[in-house]
Design goal:
With about 325 residues, the chain is of the alpha/beta class. The chain has 11 helices and 12 strands.
């Protein structure tokens, strides 16, 4: 188990991403994935109120609804659910009124009394940050949210959020959710991690497997015919530099009897302030690698090797 920042949330060190629920995984497939994750010891689920509004016929909130139905059906103990606000088609932005209305809608879909970890999904600079921070703080004071967090915020805006929360005496953020993985490191390590270390924030990275590239399944820059919504996103990383990372992951994984995906997640877990990477699964057979990635411990020299081969590896434009 791992603790998220300065909170009281002790969780399995990998978060199951709910972005695929209601998209590439229908209700039955989502239930099967959630069951396998929980049976394997997982207890930390990440979603957002906007998932999966981009799918034709969806309106947003489908992922939360599926998770809520699973929670009601299975009644698991100790499951921590994180969700986010600002991108739902009906609840865009981070005004105080919108945050309150969106949180209440999320609570209804999830069927819970309080959201364990509530993120500001994307910064909204059209609203004074004092208003946003105050609204999140009020949700905590009213018992609708247990802990506050931010996603996709710059280091400067995280610092400003913390300063406002300290000055006004409202709940401090406990987590940051950045885009972070072996092929997308530098801005996080140079700016976000130092702020997280300074304020005791836990990192819960998304795109942990780089849209599937870090599973080793997409070794070609030609995504045509791959048959997956993730293929195009993954293929852009299949450069010479990117493939060196896959080769190193494969070599290290073989030494542990672990997959490329599990080894990649283990590297991410070894980074400063990282509490639990987020990774999703559309099918039950993918869950095992995620669970293994939460338990695999890499040696210092293995982490160092992956650090070396992944330095400055931007994706193809």
């Amino acid at each position: 188990m791992t603790r998220i920042g300065n909170s009281d949330l002790d969780v399995f060190p990998l978060s199951l991403g709910g972005n695929v629920f209601g998209w590439t995984a229908d209700r039955d497939a989502s239930f099967a994935v959630l069951d396998a994750f929980a049976e394997g010891g997982g207890d930390f689920i990440d979603t957002a109120d906007a998932y999966s509004a981009w799918v034709p016929g969806n309106s947003g909130g489908e992922s939360e609804t599926i998770i809520g139905e699973w929670l009601a059906s299975r009644k698991p103990e100790g499951v921590v659910v994180a969700t986010k606000v600002s991108q739902h088609p009906d609840f865009r932005g981070l005004s105080a009124a919108n945050i309150r209305n969106a949180a209440e809608a999320s609570l209804g879909r999830l069927g819970v009394d309080a959201i364990d970890l509530y993120y500001a999904h994307f910064d909204d600079e059209t609203v004074p940050l004092e208003e946003t921070v105050g609204a999140f703080g009020q949700l905590v004071a009213d018992g609708l949210v247990r802990h506050v967090a931010v996603s996709n915020y710059s280091a400067e805006r995280i610092r400003e959020w913390v300063e406002i929360a300290q000055r006004t005496g409202v709940a401090l953020p406990v987590a940051v959710q950045p885009h972070y993985n072996l092929v997308h490191r530098n801005d996080v390590e140079e700016s976000i991690i130092p702020v997280a270390e300074e304020f005791g924030l836990g990192l819960v990275p998304y795109y942990s497997l780089a849209s599937g590239f870090l599973t080793g399944k997409y070794r070609s820059t030609d995504a045509d015919g791959q048959g997956s919504p993730r293929a195009t996103g993954a293929a852009k990383y299949a450069t010479e530099a990117g493939l060196r990372i896959i080769d190193a992951l494969e070599e290290i994984g073989n030494a542990h009897g672990a997959s490329i995906a599990a080894t990649s997640l283990a590297w991410l877990r070894a980074q400063p302030t990282v509490a639990a990477p987020i990774a999703s699964a559309s099918r039950v057979e993918q869950v095992g690698d995620l669970l293994a990635g939460a338990r695999l411990e890499l040696a210092a020299d293995e982490v160092a090797l992956l650090n070396r081969v992944s330095e400055w590896t931007p994706a193809r434009a």
